[in-house]
Each structure stands twice: as C-alpha cells, then as structure tokens.
Amino acid sequence: MSTSAVAADTQHLERLVDLRRAVEQALEGKPRAVELSLVALLAHGHVLIEDVPGVGKTTLARAIARAVGGDLARIQFTSDLLPSDVLGVSVFQQRTGEFTLKQGPIFNNILLADEINRASPRTQSALLEAMNEGQVSLDGQTIPLPDPFLVIATQNPSDFTGTFPLPESQLDRFMVRIRIGYPPPDVEARLMLSPDTDRVARVHQVLDPQSLVELQRQVMRVEVDGALATYLQALVAATRSSPSIALGASTRAGMNLSRAARARALLHGRRYCIADDIYELAVPVLAHRVRLAAHAEGYTPSREEAEAVVRDVISRVPTPL
Questions:
Q1: Which one of 6, 191, 193, 281 is least enclosed by Cβ atoms within 10 Å?
Q2: How far apart are CA 46 and CA 150, in angstroms?
Q3: Burial of 53 (0-12, 13-18, 19+ CB in 10 A)
C-alpha cells in the first residue's frame, strides 16, 4: 500500500473514532446503542428502536445528523397520517397551469419516524421503496433520495394502546433493531441535575455527507474470509431449522448481517472481519426478522422472547477458530 493510501486509510479510521465519540457525548452511557446505530449508518441500513418514551431516541437521531452534517426531518406518526405527509404531494400552480412536486420530509439525509407503529399500515408502507431502493415514486416519477439516507424509526411496545404491528415486509427493511434503555444510575443522576437540557448542541460536526458516503464505500472493501462466510450462512440456516422458530431469517437478512459485520469491523479499526463481528450483531440483525412458533391465540411474543430464542439458536453454531 502506498504512503498516500496508508495516510488516507488512517484518516478514515480517525474520522470514525471522532464520529463515535461525538454521538456518545450526546447519548451518554449507551455505547452499545450508539455502535449499532453507526453500524447501520455505515452499512446503508436503517434502525428500528423499540423502547419506552423519554430514553433518548430523538437525541440519538439528532446527534448523528449533527455529527455527519446531514439534514434531519422528524415525522410524528399518528393514526391519521397519510402517505403524502411522508412522501410529498403535487401542487397545482395557477400561474403556470402545471403541477409541481412539494417534497415531503423523506427527502432528507436522516428521517426520524417517531412511533411508526401508531400509523396505519398504508402509511407505514410509504417507507418501503425509500428504505429498500433509496428512491420514491410519485405521480409517475421516480425520484432519488439524498445520499446518504438513513431512517431511524421508533416503535412503541406492542401492548401500548393504539398501535399497528409492523408487517414482516416492513421489519425486514430495518438492518438492526435496538433498545436504548434507561441510562446507568450515575449518568441518570447527573442528567437530572444538569442545567444542560440539550446535549446535542454540544455535538460537533466531524464529517460531511460526502465523506460519509466514502466511508460507506470503504465498508464493502472489508475482507470476509471463506470460513467466516460459512459461519454466517450457518447462523442464518440455524434459524430455519429450529423448532422454536416458524419462519427463519431470509437471504436478505444474511446479506444485511454480512454488511453490518463489515461495518463493525471498520468501526473497530480493522479492514477484516472476525467471528465476533458476526456473532455480536446476529441478534440485533436477525431477531426481528424471525417469527416464533405458534403461541396461544391472541398472544404476541415480545422482543425479549424473540431475542432469547435467536441467541440460544446461534449459540449452538460452532464458531470458526
């Protein structure tokens, strides 16, 4: 590798360290949630956060947007929200006698879809093409979305009033599902007494959108050897043969796990994957994509149950040496 290439590589890795530090400054005490979110960002994925209100979901999205210099839009999903409220609408201009497109909030680098499961399935589905293809179709036009593009959606627990469970096709568009949880007691005590009510304001921009796109390209250059590829496929296949799981992970899920593992390796300063990159991401990438075996009628398994089953299944797969 030439001296200039080594210097560029070092600069990329230093920027990732700065990015992680900047976001953790806003979401203090939650390194796991920050890491998973940045993995999805680097791997062209999207993030689903299932948690109770008030634990920092909006803070996380704002901090990432500020750190990468991207445009952020927030949509509060409600039962009366329409697809046009997300995508945009054509408006008739009397002066010209033509329709012009008024773009919706989805045309931003980062979209915070708050309480996505309070909206109807019709509105939820407005995100499908955008999340999968990076484009939207409106009035016969196919319009590309900004690059980079990240959806961070929050979801209320299924036992909350007025929720519409996300269908499997929608869940499959999210690379990772995470939970932020309450902060450690010492951090929570400090937050309660701090006069600084907006921790995101302290976050400095460490990247610009074009630099982030270049880092996303670097992710696919991370090496995965044959033994790890076999291990990854075995993890996905194990979810399909377990008697505890009625519907196992798809090929798309395996591809997502591969990209996420590469992104984690880069985030940890490596140009090659190790088994831990795959194992540590298997549950957040796969658990929301499987359907557990039948339970009592009317009973919906919780996130914790699905994660426990997937964790047990993957623990039985031999790890390559």
A1: 193
A2: 6
A3: exposed
Beta pairing partners, 112: 74, 152
> What mean pLDDT do residues 73-100 have?
87
State the Cα angle at 170 between 174 and 33, rounded to 5°: 25
Give me the residues paired with residue 153 across strands: 48, 113
DSSP-derived 3-state class of residue 17: helix
Residue 249 · residue 297 · CB < 8 Å: no
pLDDT digits (tens, 9 = 90+) for 237-254: 999 999 999 989 999 999
Q: Whole-model pTM above 0.85?
A: yes
CB atoms within 10 A of CB 10: 11
- In whole angstroms, give the CA distance from residue 89 to residue 96: 17
- Do the beta carbons of residue 39 and residue 144 sit within 8 Å? no
Q: Which amino acid is at 303?
A: R
Task: Please state the φ and ψ torsions of residue 49, each to the nearest 5 degrees.
Answer: -110, 120
